[in-house]
């Protein structure tokens, strides 16, 4: 990771105006993941750094949302685990979370289900986002569904990313916990890269919003 | 000794009086008076023990109430844990309310909401809780993340890193004359870094102290103090460097 992609704890507090108490409270409540605390030695001993983009975005969102929700409810939004949320398939369409086209495609592969578990919703949501990006065809979408269904326990417990790449017109997907150090040969083209974890957060947000 | 275990919804009790052993399992109430060896994990609604117990496995229970000496070779999970004596958990410990008179040592991470200790608490990894009151000594070989810490030292304490909002470290009362004779021995708190909003520290040796309101009492030796709003110190405190941070 690059030096300027990191932010020191001191800078972070100055930048965002939060206190040590808040930072540590959020850490205890798992609003800020443990592995974002990166310890490095400096001239004063050890200093803690954070991934700049992620932490600033996260703190911004916590600050914006914390008036409406309790810290525990917030922790729920940020945790990738699937809760006991389940919804009717048509409800998702009514709420404009997924389109009818996406749902059709999903049902073609998985068969139609009356209620969807949270992991199914995540799968649908990722599918929807990739289809809407215009980078993925419906046929490739089916591949994606198979991939996500087969490995749903992974993205429920860990941050994951999904990457679509092509070589000579042949498509492949990768579901990875970390894409930091992966190198392909020359002919491979990365088409889309999407964080499943971010999708889960977004999905939970939109589920929460409409419920009120 | 009676030990029974069934697969029905209603679980039976296990009672060990005198000397006994069990293979573990799921119970309603586990009650031990005397010496017991449990060779397996235990799940129960309440765990009571007076005497010596060794559990080779994990304990998860609704309430834990013990007098005596207990060793658990894996983790322990409980709603509340009350102890008079000595408890060693070699794995992780998580509980809502922990009340200890005696000694608690945890081999891995400890998570709790409220912790009250008269005696010694030592954690070999990170420790986090909302409210921690300690009269005695504290040893955390990792990060201590606590909303509100009240540490009254009897004997030495240390932590690698402390973070929280309100932290109060002071010396407990002891015999005044003896105290003067062996000052270096009697209760200091050693930490790598201490960070919080409101800090009051006595007899603390730390490399870095950062906070909004920082007050250093007698006997502090601090390398660097960074404060945002207020900094007060006792004349006997020694500080190498002080910076005010403008927020």
From TrEMBL, chain A:
Name of this protein: DUF4004 domain-containing protein
InterPro entries to which the protein is assigned, alphabetical: DUF4004 (IPR025063)
A Pfam family matched in the record: DUF4004
Species name: Paenibacillus pini JCM 16418
UniProtKB/TrEMBL annotation, chain B:
Name by which UniProt lists this protein: Uncharacterized protein
């Amino acid at each position: 990771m690059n030096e300027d992609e990191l932010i020191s704890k001191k800078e972070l507090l100055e930048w965002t105006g939060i206190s040590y108490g808040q930072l540590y409270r959020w850490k205890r409540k798992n609003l800020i993941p443990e592995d974002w605390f990166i310890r490095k030695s400096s001239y004063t001993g050890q200093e803690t750094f954070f991934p700049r983009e992620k932490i600033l975005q996260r703190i911004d969102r916590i600050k914006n949302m914390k008036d409406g929700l309790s810290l525990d409810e917030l922790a729920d939004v940020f945790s990738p685990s699937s809760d006991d949320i389940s919804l009717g398939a048509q409800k998702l369409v009514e709420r404009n979370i997924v389109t009818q086209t996406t749902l059709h495609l999903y049902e073609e592969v998985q068969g139609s289900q009356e209620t969807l578990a949270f992991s199914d919703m995540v799968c649908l949501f990722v599918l929807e986002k990739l289809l809407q990006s215009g980078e993925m065809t419906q046929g490739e979408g089916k591949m994606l569904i198979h991939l996500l269904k087969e490995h749903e326990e992974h993205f429920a417990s860990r941050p994951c990313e999904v990457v679509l790449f092509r070589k000579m017109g042949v498509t492949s997907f990768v579901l990875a916990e970390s894409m930091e150090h992966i190198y392909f040969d020359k002919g491979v083209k990365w088409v889309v890269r999407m964080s499943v974890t971010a999708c889960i957060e977004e999905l939970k947000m939109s589920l929460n919003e409409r419920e009120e | 000794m009676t030990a029974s275990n069934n697969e029905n919804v209603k679980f039976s009790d296990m009672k060990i009086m005198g000397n006994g052993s069990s293979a573990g399992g799921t119970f309603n109430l586990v009650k031990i008076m005397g010496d017991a060896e449990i060779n397996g994990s235990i799940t129960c609604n309440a765990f009571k023990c007076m005497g010596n117990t060794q559990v080779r496995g994990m304990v998860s229970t609704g309430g834990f109430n013990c007098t005596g000496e207990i060793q658990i070779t894996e983790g322990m999970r409980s709603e509340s844990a009350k102890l008079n004596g000595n408890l060693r958990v070699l794995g992780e410990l998580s509980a809502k309310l922990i009340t200890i008179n005696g000694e608690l040592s945890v081999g891995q991470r400890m998570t709790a909401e409220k912790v009250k200790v008269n005696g010694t608490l030592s954690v070999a990894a990170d420790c986090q809780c909302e409210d921690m009151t300690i009269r005695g000594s504290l040893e955390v070989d990792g990060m201590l993340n606590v909303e509100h810490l009240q540490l009254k030292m009897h004997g030495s304490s240390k932590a690698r890193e402390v973070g929280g909002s309100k932290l109060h470290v002071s010396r407990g009362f002891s015999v005044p004359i003896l105290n003067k004779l062996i000052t270096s021995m009697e209760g200091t708190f050693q930490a790598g870094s201490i960070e919080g909003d409101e800090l009051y520290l006595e007899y603390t040796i730390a490399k870095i102290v950062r906070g909004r309101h920082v007050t250093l009492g007698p006997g502090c030796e601090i390398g660097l103090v960074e404060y945002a709003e207020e900094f007060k110190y006792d004349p006997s405190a020694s500080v190498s460097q002080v910076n005010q941070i403008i927020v």
